[in-house]
Amino acid sequence: MRVLFTTLAAATHLHAQVPLAWALRAAGHEVRVASQPDLVDDIVRTGLTAVPVGRALDPQQWADVSPLSEADLNREENIWNAQGGIAWDLFDLCELRPEHLTYSYMHCVLEAWISHNFRQTSSPETVDDLVAFARQWRPDLVIWDPTTFAGAVAAMATGAAHARLMFGFDVLGRMRGSYLDALRERPPEHREDPFEEWLGPLLERYGSAFSEEAVVGRWTIDPVPSSLRLEVDHPYLPVRYVPYNGHSTIPGWLRTPARGRRVCLTLGRSFRELLGGDRASVAELLDAVAELDIEVVATLNAAQLAELPRLPDNVRAVDFVPLDALLPSCSAIIHHSGSGTTQTALAHGVPQVVVPALLFDNLLKARRIEEAGAGLHVREGQAPTATTLRDMLVRVLEEPSFTRRAQELRREMLGTPSPRELVPVLERLTEDHRGGTFAR
Hints:
By secondary structure, the chain is an alpha/beta fold. It folds into two domains: 2-240 and 417-433, Glycogen Phosphorylase B (Rossmann fold); 252-414, Rossmann fold, CATH 3.40.50.2000. Strands 3-2-1-4-5-6-7 form a seven-stranded parallel sheet, with helices on both faces. It has a six-stranded parallel sheet with strand order 10-9-8-11-12-13, sandwiched between helices. The termini are close together. The chain has 20 helices and 13 strands. It has helices at residues 11-26, 40-45, 60-63, 70-75, 77-82, 103-121, 124-137, 150-158, 171-184, 194-205, 213-216, 270-274, 282-290, 302-306, 323-326, 339-347, 362-371, 386-398, 400-414, 419-433; strands at 2-6, 30-35, 50-52, 141-144, 161-165, 219-222, 236-238, 262-266, 295-299, 315-318, 332-335, 352-354, 375-377. Belongs to the glycosyltransferase 28 family. It comes from Streptomyces kanamyceticus. Pfam families: EryCIII-like_C, EryCIII-like_N.
């Protein structure tokens, strides 16, 4: 069969798709990966075939987030005032408390994401190009990143089966379910759905009608361990998370045993590349580890290093090292709650100290890791000071329960079907959807 992957133009989002794409290709299926032109080189370096669509992604569109329209603010005035007028607070998809999930609150959050993010990742140019390619190539199955709704539109326009492939927790699916429940309780004349208002006209352009599969897919392929997954009324296909860090080389120093306990410190790539900056101060992080009897491997780029007066003697700074190779030698990791970093730490059973960047599902991942007993996290509104971080790291290193729970989650992940084992499931579901005939 022919399988089309679509992803946001960010290397870490692509990396989440590569193992399954490889598994499908190895099984004899044709695979293409579509994204904005600025991701083409990264796609090609994976050995997969790239399809550039739309214009290059402009991260500045997200870095300079402005408030919503006056009408939106008036509709949600109380929430806006209560949250201090900070635009990023309208992007909190991690809220799970039922008493806070009012129709107005959820409508404002979903509208914010559509207006300032999803309309850019699935711009009209991107959708047009992707639909045109899909109509020419005729994929049987479209697998799309949950932030690239162009994939769903292309699948529905061509009659292909389609599924989301999660890179992290399904916070959007969770809020969407609560939102639909709230929507049904409103009078028909007041049932405004921002997703239908946006995607409905797009789908009509290609002869399709809006339905809920345009938002969450027909199924969702989920690499998050089942014990950590959010409760969502939706069909999920569990798959084992297989780390992929891009093209990389194992450095010589990593081939020698660590000097005592080793700790990885990383703030990841996505938040800096797409939005600029980190929540945590690098200087505070380094102060937290400076006096401890550990070896620290810190992934810091030139810009971060330039802002530091000095590196502690127990810190090795490297611009990049594959986490999949580094973490097996580590006793703990300090990180920003990025999906690839969190999942790779889980895959290797490494306990975590999390300073979550407040974006998408990062805060929720941090909470769930702590609730599972596999780490600790800096809470929202709490300053990530050197003292706080040091105390957390010492606990994670000294209390055996953190390592034990992290290892239990690793065993759970190893018991989940691998990408290769998921391929026959996708073949069957796609064949059922397409009436038993694959496009050739």
